[in-house]
Amino acid sequence: xxxxxxxxxxxxxxxxxxxxxxxxxxxxxxxxxxxxxxxxxxxxxxxxxxxxxxxxxxxxxxxxxxxxxxxxxxxxxxxxxxxxxxxxxxxx
Length: 92
Known about the structure:
Elements: E1 16-17, E2 24-29, E3 32-37, E4 46-54, E5 60-66, E6 74-75, E7 83-91
């Protein structure tokens, strides 16, 4: 019986939540990721910077200025292959 060659793409990560900073964090799903805050919103007004750890390419970073209480969800620039985590920092 003859077989056909099948190309297999790299396995994408399942996803999860990154570290929490003043109730805000990064969440990743396969190649997509975003910055969000818990249900009570950001604990402090300032700039929240999230960096997605992208496989086989440079990492993607976004800065979002938030008011205290912000629950907005901001979509990060997708990774081409897979996102393997998101690290978030806070700057006043």
